[in-house]
Amino acid sequence: MLRSKKLFQGIAKHIGDTMQDDEEPIKDKEFKEEEWSEPDDESLLSEEDVEPDIEKMEEELDELPEFTDDETFPSFQRGKNIAKALDATQLYLGEIGFSPLLTAEEEIHYATLALKGDMEARKKMIESNLRLVVKIARRYLNRGLPLLDLIEEGNLGLMKSVEKFDPKRGFRFSTYATWWIRQTIERAIMNQTRTIRLPIHVVKELNVYLRAARQLTQKLDHEPSPEEIAEMVDKPLEDVQKLLGLNDKVASVDTPIGFDETKSLLDTIADENSLNPAELLTNENLRQHIESLLDKLTENQQQVIARRFGLRGFEKATLEDVGKEIDLTRERVRQIQVEALKTLRTLLERVGLTQEDLF
Known about the structure:
InterPro entries: RNA_pol_sigma-70_dom, RNA_pol_sigma70, RNA_pol_sigma70_r1_2, RNA_pol_sigma70_r2, RNA_pol_sigma70_r3, RNA_pol_sigma70_r4, RNA_pol_sigma_r2, RNA_pol_sigma_r3/r4-like. Residues 205-280 are annotated as: Sigma-70 factor domain-3. Belongs to the sigma-70 factor family. RpoS subfamily. Keywords: Cytoplasm, DNA-binding, Sigma factor, Transcription, Transcription regulation. This protein is mostly helical. It has four domains: 2-77, no CATH class; 91-193, Four Helix Bundle (Hemerythrin (Met), subunit A) (Up-down Bundle), CATH 1.20.120; 198-269, Orthogonal Bundle (Arc Repressor Mutant, subunit A); 288-358, Arc Repressor Mutant, subunit A. It is built from 20 helices and two strands. The chain has helices at residues 2-22, 28-33, 47-50, 54-60, 69-72, 74-85, 88-96, 104-115, 119-127, 130-137, 147-164, 173-192, 200-220, 226-233, 237-245, 277-294, 299-308, 319-326, 330-350, 355-358; strands spanning 256-257, 263-264. Helix 11 packs across helix 12 and helix 18 (319-326) packs across helix 19. The longest helix is centred in the N-terminal third of the chain and has 21 residues, at 2-22. The two termini are 79 Å apart.
């Protein structure tokens, strides 16, 4: 690729040098005085006259400096910038601008044909009202969906309205289509902009409260409280608080915070599973106290209690399993457990503890 570029530059340089050496600039005065005539065969350049010396070109390739696309072709970068500006939205808006609007008579004509199943008439109705969808979709910007997605959903509503529109009702198609377009866009926002999807009727009621909150904010110059919103919409305070709680935003724990963006939201969240150092110290003191209480029991009682309640490194076991381990019957193990618990209860009451503190 680089060698081809150098060869191209060398050929251009060779032709430019040849033209500078063999030709003289044409003066404006001389050009005006001369009459134009067809060139004869002798005045035409032959292939030998313009054929460059390829071998010489290749020898000069190594002497040519390196060039970037921006240096060799200044318009290259400008072209890339223009391509970026012509994004999908602008291209779409440019295309739909060529579809003329329909008159009232044309609407009736094409709508009547569309109801009878004429696909060309249906297509004409849709294409002529695409700009209506864009106009309505712009009202729903900053609601969680990009403009192209809003337009796409609105187009679905437009197609549905073409199927349902009856020109005999006497009103314009745009009036009828607006309802369908808004309906599909609003449903898309309700369904697609929340991490946790809410039922449509819940979202509609929530939007009523949010709309009231925006109106109160403009009127009161402060963020309205749930009580003020409930009073405005005449709803129970509990219902308003419950629905407003569903409007909480979901954020990723990896979201950067601070100016340096070296810390994430996860770094600020406390670990609920980690124990408080004070609690660890308290638990250690309690464990040592329990050990001292168990030492006051008989050998069999210590073995039964430790195995039954998972103390001293043992796993919790059934009466039957404990009996097998210490070579006693299941009933005898139960009796030893009852005797040991009575003794422990008495010891715990003396120090102000309960059996729940032990197990």
